[in-house]
Amino acid sequence: MEAPTFFIFLFIVCLSTAADTLSSGWSMKDGETLVSSGQSFVLGFFSPGNSQNRYVGIWYKITPEIVVWVANRDNPLTDSHGVLTFSRDGDLVLVNQSNGIIWSSNLSRVLKNPVAQLLDTGNLVLRENTGLNSDVYSWQSFDHPSDTLLPGMKLGWDLKIGLERRLTSWKSMDDPSPGDYTCRLNIHGLPQVELVSLGSSKKYRSGSWNGKQFSGASVGSNEVTTSVFVYGENEIFFAYEARKSEFIARVLTMNHSGLLQYYVASKRSNAWTIMYSSPNNPCDAYGTCGANGICRANRAPICDCLKGFVPKSPEEWDLLICSGGCMRRIPVDCSKEEGFLKLAKVKLPDLLEFWLNKNMSLKECASECLKNCSCTAYANSDVRGGGSGCLLWFGSLIDIREYEQDDYGQTLYIRLPKSELDFVHNSAKKKRMVITVLMSAIAALFLLAMVYCRRIWNCRIKRKGSKIKEEDIDLPLFDLATIVNATNGFSEDSLIGAGGFGPVYKGNLFTGQEVAVKRLSRNSGQGLEEFKNETILIAKLQHWNLVGLLGCCMEREERILVYEYMQNKSLDYFIFDRERCLMLDWEKRFDIIIGIAKGLLYLHHDSKLRVIHRDLKASNILLDGSLSPRISDFGLARIFASDEKEAKTKRIIGTYGYMSPEYAFDGKFSVKSDIFSFGVLLLEIVSGKRNRGFCHPNHHHNLLGHAWLLWSEDRAMELVDGCLDDSVEPQVQRCIHIGLLCVQKFPNDRPAMSSVVAMLGNESASLPRPKQPGFFMERSSMDLSTAPTHEELHSINAVTVTMLDGR
Questions:
Q1: For the chain, how many structural domains are there in total?
Q2: Distance from C-alpha of 21 to C-alpha of 25, rounded to nearest angstrom
Q3: What is the tens place of the pLDDT at every residue in 432-490?
Q4: Less packed terminus of the chain by CB within 10 Å, N or C?
Q5: Where a domain ends, among 144, 162, 179?
Q6: Quick check: is 120 catalytic?
């Protein structure tokens, strides 16, 4: 082959297999591809799943199975002889073996010198080849979405040319032809995102746009994307813009099962994660509770009638069949005085029969509703600047949902007869009166109840003593004489500490082995349940970062645990003391953090039993001779089944300052409760300050709030213990960041322990942006004046026990 011919051949191969453009006169055969300039996306031929049909599509280069656009989804090729080329009019066309056109871009004008280019956004564009890159496109794939919305794509309308951009699901995982579900932006009245199934029946809707967000779905920004909503004269659309991060995003997908799913993927691992899916609970489904019903996902049953309404079919509602909806208890009569009931934090009803005026005030809106007997409710159409605009509803109110979060939902005013409003208000007054009487009675009996409970508790200890059988405990049993001899008769000279369980003594067995002896106190807040829990549980746990239990003693009324002796006491002995803290440099503190994290990872994931510790704190981290950490005190721990994710208790036991919000307030606990405690502990190790009792001259937040404020202002290093060297800044800042991720308010936002260990061990991996921590609130000066002092807190190592009534 002559040299010029060889170079021409090489040029053709490179153009057809690696370039991002396809020019006039060239074509792309099955097996050849276009690759975007940044190596993000590929255009080529593919067969989905188990199908033998061939399609032209666009996919992520790092994960070819993630197809984001399909050209000929209605008309597949049945063989591998397809060719993507240009027609005489400049159309981009897909032809089969007999040159029949399978798919075409259908340009509205003729292009003399067309060029197709795959952009690094995943957009395939067609333009006139002028020799310069131009942003003026004659056609683009972003105007014709398949099932996926990529960053920069628009979901909505170009009103100038009457173009609607919508997502349509695949028929199945093996068939990209249009399926049964469509996601579109309905712009009738006020825009709202709707998921419609075959036959135009709604499956889900977001709620109407209120100037800030859709009334039933928060459209905010996050660490991966920035949300965009444009509501103009010529265009109305919703879109995402990708932020620079360690993630690539297949932002929104309408899958073949009718779910809107939001994906992200790491460039490092190429693993995709579903961050959000909708509908994801029964209240997301359209009209779950029927006409004039309201859905509350956090209650059981989830459906209820609006105030002033009753079920149309009580028999069906008793069977939890709520689709029949509700009707007014008393019909509206325009001749009598009427008013409105305020309903906050709800997704506004669907815009079926409505009236919109964008210039009215809320007061004018109420008056307008009262003028029309058919008006059933009203609300502001725009919530910005205190609210403006007027929405009126006529007839039944469909698809109302209530939210717990303040950043979701809107306020709706429902029209009711005066008698119904009086009934609602009187019911509220009676409820407050009953609560006041009950609280007074509880306060009056509180001291008596405390004395009574203490006596019952002591009697229970005596009764339960005989119920613990030695064969239930898989541990060596020490006789009481051996323990008494080892501790010099439980002398004060042998006393090394005390906790919620009781006093702890140092002992020397006759073999010469040093041990720590924990003796259940009769006045302890804990008891036989915790003793049995620890003896049975910890005997089955074996890990370097868990304290070893050597045996126990159960003679007479004595309940004693015998542990390995830890020469360096507990972590709080060092980090909260201004002199002893110097013994723990950052390297040693970081080793302690890693050790605690690995111990928790073992408890949560790697042991045969999934264990929730429930009382992780500095005083329960013991240090051996080389200052290696050991997690101790499993008296409050709970074992979870493999399929169990969360539990609830009426008896809240733990230590304030380390308890997660959901546990302290509602008695709910899970592995995420331990992760919250770990986050507190991590921030305490970094700062040398206690979370509970923390004081600052410029604000009244606890340590978590103080850390959050500093991190938000890029001053995180001001949190660091003065004992530490400034040279450790990057690693310390990362630990603060991880600590804030662990103490986020909502459990689902906190990372799993496996992720925490990975984040601590991989300093190059990017971290998500933390949200506001739990217990982020200001305390009054009175709270601070009565807070325990540092010395008082240092001497206290007791658990808190709270009984939740009525749960």
A1: 5
A2: 12
A3: 676 777 777 777 777 777 777 666 666 555 444 435 555 556 678 888 889 999 999 99
A4: N
A5: 144
A6: no
